[in-house]
């Protein structure tokens, strides 16, 4: 899978993909993540990428031309399945959307800033608008990193134990059961006896009950 991210702040995305699972996915050739500096696609003298809004009002609006220059260049190199715009007024991201996107080959992600991006980009180039939650961040870079992480870890071969993505909270209908590791007792705090019993069917049953209980108390909406 290839993911191209277009941003005015490429430095913000230096680190999120350079460690751990996301780094391994790239080293294994399972994911290629390329960050593009929007300013490189500006034809203005000071490499500006924003301008005052028509009709007045506060805040700057990101211009159509640099985005289109970058998107069109990428589209000459390969076909893209989706052009995604990260925005707080998009559809709220969830595991189902992550699953859908992980089945695609090539994605472009646009990061907004300031007051927003020229509506003509959204109308004519963007195929999907995604929010990572009902709060406003300073730009779309961190949301883009969240999206990419959630997608890439689902690609076959990325996680060492392939079943572990399948048993994630949200991947089924239930939240995960609690987990413990050694020592079996720490300052009087004990690991539940059942997990030390070696009785696999009983452990599975306990985990299922814990999942159900967690989901019922924390996220009853998931059971509806
Ligand atoms: N840009 C700013 N806030 C955002 C959010 N909550 N989700 C996606 N993109 C954003």
UniProtKB/TrEMBL annotation:
Keyword DNA repair attributed: no
Database matches in Gene3D superfamilies: 3.40.1280.10, tRNA(m1g37)methyltransferase, domain 2
InterPro entries: Alpha/beta_knot_MTases, tRNA_m1G_MeTrfase_C_sf, tRNA_m1G_MeTrfase_TrmD, tRNA_m1G_MTases_N, tRNA_MeTrfase_TRMD/TRM10
GO BP: any one term: tRNA N1-guanine methylation
Pfam families: tRNA_m1G_MT
Subcellular location: Cytoplasm
EC numbers for this chain: 2.1.1.228
Coiled-coil parts of chain: none
MF terms in GO: tRNA (guanine(37)-N1)-methyltransferase activity
Residue positions binding S-adenosyl-L-methionine: 112, 132-137
Catalysed reactions, semicolon-separated: guanosine(37) in tRNA + S-adenosyl-L-methionine = N(1)-methylguanosine(37) in tRNA + S-adenosyl-L-homocysteine + H(+)
GO cellular component: cytosol
Residues of the tRNA methyltransferase TRMD/TRM10-type domain: 1-224
Presence of keyword tRNA processing: yes
Domain of life: Bacteria
Root EC class: transferase
Keywords: Cytoplasm, Methyltransferase, S-adenosyl-L-methionine, Transferase, tRNA processing
Family, as annotated: Belongs to the RNA methyltransferase TrmD family.
Description of how the protein assembles with itself and partners: Homodimer.
Function of the protein: Specifically methylates guanosine-37 in various tRNAs.
Name recorded for this polypeptide: tRNA (guanine-N(1)-)-methyltransferase
Naturally occurring in which organism (per UniProt): Solitalea koreensis
Gene: trmD
């Amino acid at each position: 899978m290839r993911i191209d991210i277009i941003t005015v702040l490429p430095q913000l995305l230096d680190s999120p993909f350079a460690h751990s699972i996301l780094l391994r996915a790239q080293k294994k050739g399972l994911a290629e993540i390329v960050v593009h500096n929007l300013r490189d696609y500006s034809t203005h003298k000071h490499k500006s990428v924003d301008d005052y809004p028509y009709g007045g009002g506060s805040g700057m609006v990101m211009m159509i031309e640099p985005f289109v220059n970058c998107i069109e260049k990428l589209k000459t190199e390969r076909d893209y399945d989706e052009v995604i715009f990260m925005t707080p007024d998009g559809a709220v991201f969830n595991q189902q959307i992550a699953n859908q996107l992980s089945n695609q080959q090539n994605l472009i992600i646009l990061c907004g800033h300031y007051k927003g991006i020229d509506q003509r980009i959204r109308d004519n180039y963007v195929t999907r608008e995604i929010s990572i939650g009902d709060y406003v961040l300073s730009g779309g870079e961190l949301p883009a990193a969240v999206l990419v992480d959630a997608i890439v870890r689902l690609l076959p071969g990325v996680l060492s134990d392939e079943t572990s993505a399948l048993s994630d909270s949200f991947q089924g209908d239930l939240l995960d059961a609690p987990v413990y590791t050694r020592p079996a007792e720490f300052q009087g705090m004990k690991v539940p006896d059942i997990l030390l019993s070696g009785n696999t069917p009983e452990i599975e049953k306990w985990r299922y009950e814990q999942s159900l209980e967690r989901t019922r108390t924390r996220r009853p909406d998931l059971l509806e």
